[in-house]
Amino acid sequence: MRTQDGADWPHKVDLPTATELYALLKAGTSCSVNGHTLTLDDHGVWITNPYGNDGLWQEVTIERVEKFLADMAMDKDYGLVP
Predict the structure, then answer these.
(1) What pLDDT is recorded for position 11?
(2) Which of 15, 21, 24, 36 has the most other CB atoms within 10 Å of its CB?
(3) Closest CA to 15 of 72, 77, 81
């Protein structure tokens, strides 16, 4: 995972924990996980998939983040794909 400042995720594991990602999102940090960029704004968390298509989580919950990370662990793409 990469954060908005471009620094590599400090752990050797490819994915952050749900608690770590949730905290970063709630703090307003834009993150990239498996090619999906997550950015918080006034409307919720925007998820831009590797193909440039956006989706929106209006409610940001730890459960939603856990589901997202489980999907990323299985290499699923969010949103429209070609």
Answers:
(1) 43
(2) 21
(3) 72
